[in-house]
Write a structure and sequence with these properties.
This protein has 410 residues and is mainly alpha-helical. It is built from 18 helices and seven strands. InterPro entries: Fido (IPR003812), Fido-like_dom_sf (IPR036597), Fido_containing (IPR040198).
């Protein structure tokens, strides 16, 4: 029998069938009951009836779980084929995409140029106060965020990630979290009301910490359930979406790898309707706390994000082979230094930024050449039409479109 939504069965079958099906789902061998409970939500209002969150490990879920793990292995294998000097800049490109998507989901305006500048400041350890510094720093060190073991860990994530972007009226007014009322509105209707008081928030977050450590539940299921429950609690007036997605990303980064983890918001942003519908369906009284379809949707989003990275890597690795073959087959034997530097610039152009400009200081770092020697090499490449000078102060070069097209476009 096909596993259908309880809300659908309620209308398709009679009440006795619905109750029997609910009982079967909660008590079958493939059922997993969590210790987390929520209030139902109907017609813009929280109701007194509570539901224990549960899911059934149906075949579709198991297949998706395996798919995510296989995709993660593919990503690791593909990353291992990249030259060392490409790996971190490529990850930084993904960070910028992810941060931009996270902001877009929340309706916060940011540009990739702005985020790139913030990331650059962080890499230079500059202490300039800029928007999104906390966001970019958290992504940059996503695989170093430790497991959440204390209530204060949630506030620390908030402080590091979004506190600088929060309006004065939305700053937490409790000891660690909000103590007042908060709701989510889609512009027309109220779609969610957060847990009612700071005391209840603390109680619920303690339950969440315990659940995150519960190894009876598969890691991917556990992390996605935790993501929903954090959003359900809504411990802050603002910033819950961003902190909630970073919460799940930090656990995914340790369980899978950092590339899969940081693509989650990017995938959500491409299918926001699916994401929000999945969240909003769980507290429906007819759903009775069944999270099976929510888990299916979240793993599909995660898998789609992974596949985007896999496609990008596979295409660019094919381009890398063309670049390698070009430098092997063409006569660069009397210009080995020029060939080596041009190859590096071309790789970075393909994997990181098609419009990349290369400051002389960056080229010195990549080539391990003195400024004098580097200027000689770049003058030769410039005269031959392989690169062009785009800025004099500071001196910056870019690979010419004509050269790139001659290699990559047949």
């Amino acid at each position: 029998m096909e596993y259908e939504k309880l809300s659908k069965l309620f209308y398709k079958k009679d009440e006795e069938f619905y109750k029997n099906e609910l009982s079967k789902r909660k008590n079958s061998y493939g059922s997993y009951l969590t210790p987390l409970t929520i209030n139902g939500f109907r017609k813009g209002k929280k109701i007194s009836e509570t539901y224990q969150l549960f899911y059934v490990n149906i075949h579709k879920l198991m297949s998706l779980n395996n798919k995510v793990l296989i995709n993660s292995s593919k990503i690791s294998a593909l990353i291992s084929k990249l030259p060392n000097f490409v790996i971190e800049p490529y990850f930084h490109k993904l960070i910028i995409n992810e941060a931009q998507s996270n902001n877009e989901i929340e309706g916060i305006r940011s540009t990739k140029k702005e985020l790139k500048e913030v990331l650059g400041d962080l890499m230079k350890s500059e202490k300039k106060k800029k928007r999104f510094k906390g966001l970019m720093k958290t992504y940059l060190f996503i695989d170093e965020i430790k497991s959440f073991t204390e209530i204060a860990d949630f506030r620390e994530l908030y402080d590091n990630l979004v506190s600088d972007e929060i309006a004065k009226e939305d700053i937490p007014d409790g000891e660690l979290f909000r103590k007042g009322y908060v709701e989510i509105n889609d512009g027309i209707n109220t779609t969610h009301i957060g847990v009612s008081s700071e005391g209840k928030i603390v109680e619920s977050l303690n339950a969440l910490i315990n659940y995150l450590d519960d190894e009876q539940h598969s890691e991917l299921y556990r992390y996605m359930v935790a993501h929903y429950y954090y959003e359900y609690i809504h411990p802050f007036y603002d910033g819950n979406g961003r902190t909630g997605r970073l919460l799940v990303c930090s656990y995914l980064s340790r369980y899978l790898e950092r590339y899969s983890a940081i693509t989650f918001s990017y995938a959500v942003n491409k299918n926001k309707l699916k994401y929000y519908n999945a969240l909003e369906e769980i507290p429906s009284p007819l759903n009775q706390g069944d999270m099976t379809f929510y888990l299916k949707d979240m793993l599909e989003l995660l898998s789609a994000g992974q596949e985007g990275i896999i496609d990008d890597l596979e295409i660019n690795l094919s381009k890398m082979e063309r670049i390698k073959n070009y430098f092997k087959s063409n006569n660069w034997s009397d210009q080995e230094e020029e060939a080596d530097l041009l190859k590096i610039m071309t790789y970075l152009n393909v994997f990181v930024d098609a419009e990349a400009n290369f400051p002389v200081t960056r080229l010195m770092e990549l080539s391990k050449k003195s400024r004098y020697k580097l200027n000689q090499i770049m003058n030769n490449l410039n005269e031959a039409g392989y690169v062009q000078l785009v800025s004099q102060r500071p001196k910056e070069y870019k690979v010419t479109d004509e050269f790139l097209e001659s290699i990559l476009i047949v």
